[in-house]
Amino acid sequence: MKDLVGIKELSKDKIKLILDTASSFKDVLKRDIKKVPALRGKTVVNLFFEPSTRTKTSFELAEKRLSMDVLNFSVPTSSVVKGESLFDTIKTIEAYGVDFIVIRHSSSGAPHFIARNVDASVINAGDGINEHPTQALLDAFSILERKGSLKGLNIAIVGDILHSRVAKSNIYLLSKFGANIRLIGPPTLVPEMTDYHIDVFYEMDEGLKDADVIMMLRIQMERQGKGFFPSTLEYFKNWGLDMRRLKLAKKDAIVMHPGPMNRGIEISSDVADSEQSIILEQVTNGLAVRMAVMYLLKKESENA
Amino acid sequence: MHNSILIKNGHIIDPSQGIDSIGDILIEDRKIKEVRLQPNKRQGEVKVKGQIINADGLYVFPGIVDMHAHLREPGFEYKETIKTGTMAALKGGITSVCCMPNTNPVNDNRTVTEFILKKAYAEGSCYVYPIGAITKGQKGEELAEMGLMYEAGCIAFSDDGRPVVSTLLMRRALEYSKALNVPIISHCEDISLSDSGTMNEGSLSTKMGLKGITYAAEDIMVARDIILSELTGGKLHIAHVSTEGSVRLIREAKKRGINVTAETCPHYFTITEDAVANYNTNAKVNPPLRTQRDIEAIKEGLKDGTIDVIATDHAPHHGDEKLQEFDKAPSGISGFETAFSLSLKLVHDGVLSISQLIEKMSYTPARILGINAGTLKVGSQADLTIVDMNKEFKVEATKFLSKGKNTPFEGWILKGTSVMTICRGKVFDCQSFIGG
Ligand SMILES: [Zn+2]
């Protein structure tokens, strides 16, 4: 495997391998000295065409923990704004001899387009409204830590599924492992996904019943006023997660969120900070998973 | 006797006269001088001094009249020119090309129309019929000078590429065009509903993370324009039909006697939305490729006469423009050189008879537009194409004469192709360009 462009394209075995490898990297992260020489001498470029402090920081730290040379391509000052095409940009970057390209882009399929055109390993850090594969991997890793298995779990994904690449990648991953997926949200934000075994709920209370996992999604505030829902007040009332609703799920249900949260809009503060919330663990696990992905891509491309 | 050509023993199909028979065609001074069918052979051999083409085992059809194409000149000569476009057309068996007005400047005034016609006369290989814009600058605000453009040579009006959003303006266009008795060709898309989508909306668009365009965006506009056509009595022609719903609406409208005609393009009955999987920008078109169900409905519409015409919607783009993120790449297929062979599949598959196909590709579009083409009647222009129905060839974009190499059919093996096209009295050998 040269690239990680999506979960759709990834086999169950590959996912297992990544999660197992992440486990050993998580042990590394518990040590005093958290750096390993696994990818010393390799160069990675982080190409973020869309701002994202969290994902970018997570990747950068993972890269440094693997002893890579890290280049950050900051888009606003680059030639991209002067009209250079994405193709020319990546060809230029390739000419520097980079081994990995981590890309976030507002166009769905941009990482696929790059992967076809360069020899470097391409890692999708979020493309348009398509996928965010490392997020789904870290989510699975976090669930497994708490629940031991994905099979048969009732997993509720709540909110703006239509525009959420996190939700999409999670749906692909979790359905490969036999989880029962429920989508909960306003009908305007739940897309058609007839190829998957999914239960759709427009009513939150009903959808949360007996859930093992509740994955909350970020409401993109710029969607408000675009007619997907009338107001954040109404949104929270119907699809926000508060303590009363959390009680409808299983007693040991866990609450997840990819961050950053809008407290009081999709999730109440007391839920976010509750015992059942594993939101901060997700952040730590993200590091281990991203290390695992880069480590394995390097290994496999060298064996090829 | 100068400049005469005799085509011998071809299987002549001419729906305009109901001809489906082996025979000879004599061309003199760019006109059909004589059509002699086999049962009348005892009239004796036609004697000529000019060129003799042996069409034994081949078919002879009136040249294709493509009522929907983009030649890109003026303004986008890096994508295509009238010179390269018309050469590509001839290779595809097309002898008349109607070009859409979305050039730069827009063909919304007689000066641009005259420029296109002069250029076509000087550098073109086949006939070019400009289609004028309905509104100035295709902005959808004011009617363009249709009368003056008509006088200059425009044969229809369209804002193709975008719909006329204002229902009032569309009503006026349909009303006003009645004075000229020309069709208004409508690009049916409710853009507030398609909302910058880039492929068909459905399970696949969700899976690819691409914003979809629902079939309803087309159907709603088709319904609106049919209602306006009924109200005004104007000649409405629906461009590039891609949905089951459009077919149904047009069928009903025709039954009720409304003045509406419709076209579709080979890609809409040949490939589905699956062609854009892996973000293949060469399969990005507008309206987008739809589903198998839509394909079946379109075939049914072709069969029962709901869809009158097959056009190419030849839309060449530069390679760099397609080498982009899917949502940023422009829409369109370079269609001249594959359209006829792809359409022949309808005959091979028993959807249409060969006569019906030729009618939809030559005679009917000529009739809708009121142009003198699409027939082999004695005295008419000798525009025709000679076809080997069994010749197989591989689609290779690098061999296209069009500057546009954007095709989703790369590598396909197609059966049946023009081997020779005659237009403006000149014989064009298609094969020397196919490498056959
Ligand atoms: Zn159009």
Automatic annotation (TrEMBL), chain A:
Q: Which UniProt keywords apply?
A: Pyrimidine biosynthesis, Transferase
State a single Pfam family of this protein. Answer: OTCace_N
Q: Please verify whether the record's keywords include Ribosomal protein.
A: no
Instruction: Fetch the InterPro entries from UniProt.
Output: Asp/Orn_carbamoyltranf_P-bd, Asp/Orn_carbamoylTrfase, Asp/Orn_carbamoylTrfase_sf, Asp_carbamoyltransf, Asp_carbamoyltransf_Asp/Orn-bd
Q: What is its EC number?
A: 2.1.3.2
Catalysed reaction, written as an equation: carbamoyl phosphate + L-aspartate = N-carbamoyl-L-aspartate + phosphate + H(+)
Q: Which residues form the Aspartate/ornithine carbamoyltransferase Asp/Orn-binding domain?
A: 151-297
Any one Gene Ontology biological process term?
amino acid metabolic process
Which pathway does it operate in?
Answer: Pyrimidine metabolism; UMP biosynthesis via de novo pathway; (S)-dihydroorotate from bicarbonate: step 2/3
Top-level taxonomic group: Bacteria
A GO CC term attached to the entry = cytosol
Enumerate the spans annotated as Aspartate/ornithine carbamoyltransferase carbamoyl-P binding domain: 2-145
Q: Which GO terms describe its molecular function?
A: amino acid binding; aspartate carbamoyltransferase activity
Q: Which residues bind carbamoyl phosphate?
A: R54, T55, R104, H132, Q135, G259, P260
Any idea which positions bind L-aspartate? Answer: K82, R165, R218
Check the record and name the SUPFAM superfamilies matching this protein.
Answer: Aspartate/ornithine carbamoyltransferase
- What is its biological role? Catalyzes the condensation of carbamoyl phosphate and aspartate to form carbamoyl aspartate and inorganic phosphate, the committed step in the de novo pyrimidine nucleotide biosynthesis pathway.
Which PANTHER family does this entry report, sorted A to Z? ASPARTATE CARBAMOYLTRANSFERASE, ORNITHINE CARBAMOYLTRANSFERASE, MITOCHONDRIAL
- Identify its protein family: Belongs to the aspartate/ornithine carbamoyltransferase superfamily. ATCase family.
User: What is the annotated quaternary arrangement, including any partners?
Assistant: Heterododecamer (2C3:3R2) of six catalytic PyrB chains organized as two trimers (C3), and six regulatory PyrI chains organized as three dimers (R2).
Q: What name goes with this protein?
A: Aspartate carbamoyltransferase
* Gene encoding the protein: pyrB
UniProtKB/TrEMBL annotation, chain B:
GO terms assigned for molecular function = allantoinase activity; dihydroorotase activity; zinc ion binding
Task: Detail which positions bind Zn(2+) 2.
Answer: D160, H187, H240
Q: Does the keyword Metal-binding apply?
A: yes
Q: Which residues form the active site?
A: D313
**Short name of one Pfam family:** DHOase
Q: Which CDD domains match?
A: DHOase_IIa (cd01317)
Kindly list the biological process annotations in GO that this record carries: 'de novo' UMP biosynthetic process; purine nucleobase catabolic process
Keywords for the protein's UniProt record, in alphabetical order? Hydrolase, Metal-binding, Pyrimidine biosynthesis, Zinc
Residue sites binding substrate per the record: H70, L71, R72, N102, N286, H317
Q: Which PROSITE patterns match?
A: DIHYDROOROTASE_1 (PS00482), DIHYDROOROTASE_2 (PS00483)
Instruction: Copy the pathway line from the protein's UniProt record.
Output: Pyrimidine metabolism; UMP biosynthesis via de novo pathway; (S)-dihydroorotate from bicarbonate: step 3/3
Which residue intervals define the domain Dihydroorotase catalytic in the entry? Answer: 60-244
Q: Which cofactor does it need?
A: Zn(2+)
A GO CC term? cytoplasm
**Gene3D superfamilies, alphabetized:** Metal-dependent hydrolases, Urease, subunit C, domain 1
* Cofactor notes: Binds 2 Zn(2+) ions per subunit.
**Which InterPro entries does the record associate with it?**
DHOase (IPR004722), DHOase/Allantoinase_Hydrolase (IPR050138), DHOase_cat (IPR024403), Dihydroorotase_CS (IPR002195), Metal-dep_hydrolase_composite (IPR011059), Metal_Hydrolase (IPR032466)
Q: What are the EC numbers?
A: 3.5.2.3
Q: Which reaction does it catalyse?
A: (S)-dihydroorotate + H2O = N-carbamoyl-L-aspartate + H(+)
- The organism's superkingdom is given as Bacteria
UniProt record similarity statement: Belongs to the metallo-dependent hydrolases superfamily. DHOase family. Class I DHOase subfamily.
User: What role is this protein assigned?
Assistant: Catalyzes the reversible cyclization of carbamoyl aspartate to dihydroorotate.
Question: This protein is called what?
Answer: Dihydroorotase
Q: Which organism is it from?
A: Dissulfurispira thermophila
Organism lineage reads as: Bacteria, Pseudomonadati, Nitrospirota, Thermodesulfovibrionia, Thermodesulfovibrionales
